[in-house]
Every structure is written in C-alpha cells, then in structure tokens.
Amino acid sequence: xxxxxxxxxxxxxxxxxxxxxxxxxxxxxxxxxxxxxxxxxxxxxxxxxxxxxxxxxxxxxxxxxxxxxxxxxxxxxxxxxxxxxxxxxxxxxxxxxxxxxxxxxxxxxxxxxxxxxxxxxxxxxxxxxxxxxxxxxxxxxxxxxxxxxxxxxxxxxxxxxxxxxxxxxxxxxxxxxxxxxxxxxxxxxxxxxxxxxxxxxxxxxxxxxxxxxxxxxxxxxxxxxxxxxxxxxxxxxxxxxxxxxxxxxxxxxxxxxxxxxxxxxxxxxxxxxxxxxxxxxxxxxxxxxxxxxxxxxxxxxxxxxxxxxxxxxxxxxxxxxxxxxxxxxxxxxxxxxxxxxxxxxxxxxxxxxxxxxxxxxxxxxxxxxxxxxxxxxxxxxxxxxxxxxxxxx
Length: 393
Prior knowledge:
With 393 residues, the chain is mainly alpha-helical. It has 15 helices and three strands.
C-alpha cells in the first residue's frame, strides 16, 4: 500500500513522460542500423521519421535537469538552506561518481574504461554542486543568473579550443562538445558541457516558487501558460531571424522537408537558447495542461517520474543486455557490443543494427517490462521515507 505523499503529481508525470521518451533514444542508439556512426539530425542523410525520433527525445535532458532544480526547491520546504546545500553538494558529488564509474560501465560494459563519456548525470551532478552555493542568494538573483546564462551563453560559441592542454580540457567541460583521443585505444567524450545546464537548473529551482503551498493555483497555471507560449514564440522569432540563439543557423534546402528539418535542427551539445526554448516551452505548457488530470495514463507515467535514478540506470543496463542478446540470436560478434574506444575508432559497428520499426517495438517492450519493478520501488520509497539513503537513489 502506498503511503500519502506531498509530491507534486504534475511534475512527476512530466518527468516520467520524458524518461519514457528518453528510453526511445537509448534503444535507437543500441538497435538502429548504423546508429553509432550516423547522425539522425544530419539533414542530408536522415529521414523525416528518423529525425522526429531523435527530435522528440530532445525534450528529455533539458526537462530532466530543469525539474531537478524544481525538485531541489520543493525538497527544502521543511528544511534549512544549510541542509539543502549539504544535500545538493553531496548528491552532486554522488551523481558525478555514478556517471564516471557506474553509468559508463553499463553503457559500454568496458571494464577498462577506454572511452568514458560525460553525459546528463554528470551535468546534473555538477549543476547541483553549483546550485548548493547559489541557493544562499535571493531567488530573484538566482533567476537573473539562470536567465543570463541561458540567454547569453551562445556568445561563447565562437571560442573553440583544440588539443589536450589543461585550458582546453576545462573549456570542453564548460562549453564545448568534444571527443578527445588520448592514445591508440583511449578516448574521452565531453558530451554535456555544463555552463548552460547550470543556468537551466537555476531556472528550474525558481520555478519551484510557483508550487509553494501559499501560491495561488490559478495564477500558477496562468504563468505556466504565458511563459510556455512566450518561449515558443521567442523560439520561432529567433530561429526565423537566424542571427543568434544557436550554434548552427538553419539553411534553405532543395526540398521543403529538408528545410523544415534544418529549421528545427537545434544544437543540444551544449543546449542552445533555441534548444531550451523549444523544449522547456512545451514542457511548461504540459504542466499547465496536466495539473488537474488524473487517470490510468497519468498514473503510468508518474511511476517512472517518482523513481528517476533507479529507472535511469536500470533501463540503460537492460537495453544493453537486450542488444547483446539480439546479436547472439541474429548473428554477429557480440563482443563488439562491449563498447571500447577501439570499436568506435575503427567503426566496427558501422553496419550493425535493425530497422526503425524494430527500435520502436523493443522500446515499448522494455518500458512495459520495467514498469512493475519501478512501481514496486516507488511504493518501497514512499513507505520508507525515514531511510535517508533512499533520497540518493
């Protein structure tokens, strides 16, 4: 039996929805033909359905980071800033450890760690550490800092570093998506430069004010609607002007379909202003729409939204295992699914993969397979809130 909880259901539903969608992209990576070396957003080589499959999953990371900030605000409702700061600091360090040591292992199954990748868990962890200090500032200042980072960080796009100097590596960590070759069989991927993610988490923290106990629900929904629509409008204005807001401007193509793809092909690594607007805007509109909705579908997504840490690591592990099972069943060298630097540097999986419809079938199957485990863990967490260590899992 599930004990009563003070959690905001609409936030859990949104988080659960994007985490279910997130699994689609991860299944695509492990199953789609040529996915390890083909960019699904490449205008010249993609298809509308493949681009859509990738584009819809763009919502996952920014919403996840944004809501992590909101959850931090809600977590401190009955706690001092000192306790919240300690929690954010220790959880941030914990998440970075889990990214480097555990997440890289389950993504690659490479015990030599020849190709570590800093991904979204790293970005969340680092942003939490920064937020642990920011919370001592007035909320208006935190909002301004977050807004300035998100709006202004694209001015840094022109700064491009090369090589393995300490200065270059620091810049890769902060604002430049970079794969760095360190040796014949050693690479590292700085995939989630942290500057914009810090700003996004700060704004998510400020959003928590709308869910304070004494905040008027009608006003909250009005603000969610206006800000969400405003973000979408600003996206189309900025993208239409094509002057600022994204690392790669869109261009007219030889077909209307390709031109539309180019228009919506916004930069995720690091997330541009345009990327944030087109993802967070609809997310706010979803929160506006879902606030008073409660049915079997919303309950389904809420389960995943209440156990994000557990679900994330579990789903990556399961997808990787199923991918290896697929190779064993249908032929191929299963050892190539141990994703070492050698596999990527020598393109050993260039011709591996299945049709996109199989990706969707596997995705649906894995989601329904994980649901019972996630629900059991959700109930366990809700009934054991006195166990402090559960807040880290």
